[in-house]
């Protein structure tokens, strides 16, 4: 890789991705000339352009030449979402540019700080954003987030005076093996990305290997089926969401107790090895955020945050875009948008809604993400989606993949149709009218959820406008 004094420009292939854009912003704000390519414009790429970062949406090498970029002083950062046959990528390889994965560059960036990493199949983005907010209110922090923080309206925080950097440790393509965690949370190890790992055992082994990279402390959810391979001197702490002495499991190091749900709020006591922080109120009152908050506050405690910091920060935490965001809340309809795209994540989202709105009809709109994931977890998706009262399926979002024969949303529909759930498949341009009609025809109050990791978020404004008509 080019050394720091050799890098005079950085070009991002796939700059519109949430992780790539965070790195782009970091280098841009550090004074390094940054430019990039993405397939289509988005709200995020428009923000980057407004901040002064030039972006092309045309797959032609002439753009690189027009910028005057040369291999001798330009680092190229590429996301795996950019296909091998991309013309710009092909030209850069032929010309001998130094092309690196985002994880490699992020690993280098974080070596200069104490990296606070969040790994796991679920909860990475919310937990890492909570940690960033906790430490930002405790004196400042650097952070590369996997979503847009609602508190800061950005996915990157920069505070040169801070010794810490918060990083989302992504297991896809074994990217997290390139990091150097000081403290790491592991939230879950439910098998995913089987197109990369092949088996559930190989997936979990990757997490075990990752634990051997930690230099300070591991904060791991109690009961995960992996055996950490910690270096000598590295401490291990366990955590869970709710725990009471009546539970069969042993007492974890960090946990919530005395949970109270009332008038749209969630309050609990945070138990630590040093004592209890009473009356922690969640700024985003969703049941799953109890567990996320316990994990985040555990890391903050290990970094020196005190009780008042924990209480103030959790109460003022506003969440992350596309992580259980409520866009409509009327007597007739509540509309929630969530990034969940794995069966267990969807189950958690549905459970959280059922606990808050137990008597409402629940309509879920799901856009499957990736053909391989849909194929590998078809039974799991069908099982969890069948717990909805009505399931609306959109076509599969392919991202980096080519179609797989027989793997479609119709395949999921056929499996769900054997249950009591009312299921259908609609095109994206049909969704708004379908939901408008479904809500109007429902006798009582309704909750509508849009779920998925593809481009379903681009439909949120139109869905919000349509459902807001129902008072």
Please characterize this protein's 3D structure:
By secondary structure, the protein is α/β, with parallel strands linked by helices. It has three domains: 97 residues, Rossmann fold (3-Layer(aba) Sandwich); 206 residues, Mur-like, catalytic domain (UDP-N-acetylmuramoyl-L-alanine:D-glutamate ligase, 3-Layer(aba) Sandwich), CATH 3.40.1190.10; 143 residues, Mur ligase, C-terminal domain (Protein-Tyrosine Phosphatase, Chain A), CATH 3.90.190.20. The protein has 16 helices and 21 strands. The chain has a ten-stranded mixed beta sheet, sandwiched between helices. Helix 4 links the parallel strand 4 and strand 5. Helix 11 packs parallel to helix 13, helix 13 packs across helix 14 and helix 15 packs parallel to helix 16. The protein is globular. The N and C termini lie far apart (58 Å). The relative contact order is 0.09.
List the helices and strands and how they pair.
Elements: E1 9-13, H1 18-29, E2 34-37, H2 43-50, E3 55-56, H3 62-67, E4 74-78, H4 87-94, E5 98-101, H5 102-110, E6 114-119, H6 124-136, E7 142-149, E8 154-157, E9 164-169, E10 181-186, H7 194-197, H8 200-211, E11 217-221, E12 235-242, E13 254-262, E14 265-272, E15 275-281, H9 288-302, H10 307-316, E16 325-329, E17 333-338, H11 343-356, E18 361-366, H12 371-376, H13 378-385, E19 390-393, H14 409-416, E20 422-425, H15 431-441, E21 446-451, H16 460-467
Parallel strand pairs: 1-2, 1-4, 2-3, 4-5, 6-9, 6-10, 7-9, 10-11, 11-12, 12-13, 17-21, 18-19, 18-21, 19-20
Antiparallel strand pairs: 7-8, 13-14, 14-15, 16-17
